[in-house]
Design goal:
Order of helices and strands: HHHEEEHEEHEEEEHHHEEEEE
Shape: elongated
CATH architecture of the largest domain: 2-Layer Sandwich
CATH topology of the largest domain: BirA Bifunctional Protein, domain 2
Strand content: 25-35%
Bound molecules: biotin
CATH class of the largest domain: Alpha Beta
CATH superfamily of the largest domain: Bira Bifunctional Protein, Domain 2
Number of helices: 8
Largest sheet: 7 strands, mixed
Radius of gyration: 22 Å
Helix content: 25-40%
């Protein structure tokens, strides 16, 4: 009902009476008032008078009702430990494809290679549950697709000079703007779900913890709406999702990457490797040419240059 009330109020610059709302929506004026009170408590600025209601401003909070076409599948919560944990639980319980868990902050945000992802208020933190019935080896392609679509969104919609560093860190002028983490569960030969968690520094100050990081507000030079960013990204992501399992995903990643052609150092849990990043294979493994001419195929690790 809140979705409908906001839609009606949002479309009108005039005040709308409780009586009109109640007859359009088929609920009592008392119920309308109860919903309005909840919206006000959640941060909506609704001007109320004896003549009715007028929406003055909405908070930048990705409440489910802000996404009319996805309402059932968006789960917004305030501070959580990690959206990855909630997504895993929901996925195991059978939630639908493209369920999204989004939080305003995380107490135990998780990064790649067992690192912490500092998740103060102001950033955008979410995990998507994907059910794509694919063999597990396609996971690399889907991660590459996700990183490429997000980079494209940040470039085209926010004017950020974003590029992807292998495998899927998004940087602006060498400073980290977004990170991605994925987890999957497999049954037999097929993936039951693949969860992709994305952290974007939007209005938070990531440099407090990671000197080599930056926020979107800083690089786009303007105030950014997190709820709009999520909406634009999800629409773009879903629009071309059929590419995600094909080699086109890797081609899209190639278009936005800043790694290939550079001399790089790859650090894994127990190894370090140096050489030219010659290419990526059809599943996203990095091909490194060592000084000796030997080609190594790297499937995970931290990349430095
Ligand atoms: C990295 O670059 O190390 C990956 C960072 C991934 C962070 C996101 S924020 C939303 C989701 N929840 C988490 O705990 N981690 C991911």
């Amino acid at each position: 009902m809140k979705k409908e009330i906001l839609q009606i109020l949002g479309q009108s610059s005039e005040r709308i009476s409780g009586e009109d709302l109640s007859s359009i929506l088929g609920i009592s004026r008392v119920s309308i008032w109860k919903h309005i009170k909840i919206l006000i408590a959640k941060g909506y600025d609704v001007d109320t008078s004896s003549k009715g209601y007028r929406l003055m401003a909405s908070p930048d909070t990705p409440f489910a009702w802000e996404y009319p076409d996805r309402c059932e599948k968006i789960h917004y919560t305030e501070t959580v430990d990690s959206t990855m944990d909630i997504a895993r639980d929901l996925a195991r319980k059978g939630c639908p494809h493209l369920t999204v868990i989004v939080a305003s902050a995380q107490r135990k945000g998780r990064g790649r290679l067992d690192r912490t992802w500092y998740s103060d208020k102001g950033g955008l933190y979410f995990t998507m549950v994907l059910r794509l019935s694919m063999p597990p080896q396609y996971m690399g392609r889907i991660n590459f697709y996700t990183a490429a679509i997000l980079t494209q969104t940040l470039r085209e919609e926010y004017g950020a000079d974003a590029k992807v560093k292998w495998p899927n860190d998004i940087l602006v002028e060498g400073r980290k703007l977004c990170g991605m983490l994925s987890e999957m569960e497999v049954e037999g030969e097929m993936t039951t779900f693949l969860n992709i968690g994305i952290g974007i520094n939007v209005h938070n100050d990531p440099a407090r913890y990671e000197p080599n990081s930056v926020s979107l507000r800083r690089c786009s030079g303007r105030k950014v709406s997190k709820k709009e960013l999520l909406s634009i990204f999800l629409d773009r992501f879903e629009d071309k999702l059929d590419l995600a399992m094909s080699e086109e995903a890797i081609n899209l990643w190639r278009k936005y990457n800043s790694t290939l052609g550079r001399y790089v150092r790859i650090v894994t849990h127990n190894d370090t490797l140096e050489g030219y990043a010659e290419g990526v294979d059809e599943n996203g493994a990095l091909l490194i040419k060592e000084d000796s001419g030997k080609i190594d195929k790297v499937i995970y690790g931290d990349c430095f240059y």
